[in-house]
């Protein structure tokens, strides 16, 4: 029997690579079993993507942080101070910011509606 994963324990790079590899293999096997594609087609697509992105030369791309304007950084700093002052946990903070994002989207849509 396999050990259960502890979601609070970070994975090593090796464990992460292996987990990704097994997930990819499972997806390929599932697609093949459903007759949606063959392993050769997946191999061909991987080769095409490598060719298309040859400029990377095998480098791993890690998205960096975007440069913020002075105004954006000011707002970010104040939001973080508010979150800290209220005592929200990271998960609670993310959920709150997700809901704020939805409210902003909704507000933008109502402003665009003809009256």
Give a quick precis of the structure.
65% of the residues lie in helices and 0% in strands. It has helices spanning 13-33, 39-52, 70-86, 90-112.
Characterize the structure shown.
By secondary structure, the chain is mostly helical. Helices cover 65% and strands 0% of the residues. The protein is built from four helices and no strands. The radius of gyration is 22 Å and the shape is extended. The termini are far apart.
Task: Give short descriptive properties of this protein.
about 120 residues, mainly alpha, about 65% helix
Q: Could you give the topology of this structure?
A:
Layout (H helix, E strand, L loop, with lengths): L12 H21 L5 H14 L17 H17 L3 H23 L3
Q: Which structural category do the helix and sheet elements fall into?
A: mainly alpha
Gyration radius (Cα, Å) is 22 Å
Low-confidence stretches: none
- Termini, distance in Å? 63 Å
What string, H for helix and E for strand, traces the elements in order? HHHH
How many DSSP E strands?
A: 0
Principal-axes shape call? extended
How many alpha or pi helices? 4
Helix % is: 55-70%
**Percent in strands:** under 5%
Main beta sheet strand tally, sense and closure: none
Q: Taking all residues together, what is the mean pLDDT?
A: 81
């Amino acid at each position: 029997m396999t050990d259960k994963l502890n979601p609070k324990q970070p994975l090593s790079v090796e464990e992460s690579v292996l987990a990704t590899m097994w997930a990819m293999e499972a997806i390929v096997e599932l697609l093949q079993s459903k007759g949606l594609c063959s392993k050769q087609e997946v191999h061909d697509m991987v080769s095409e993507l490598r060719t298309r992105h040859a400029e990377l030369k095998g480098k791993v791309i890690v998205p960096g942080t975007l440069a913020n304007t002075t105004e954006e950084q000011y707002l970010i700093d104040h939001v973080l101070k508010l979150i800290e002052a209220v005592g929200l946990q990271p998960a609670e903070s993310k959920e709150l910011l997700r809901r704020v994002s939805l409210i902003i989207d909704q507000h933008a849509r109502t402003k665009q509606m003809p009256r």
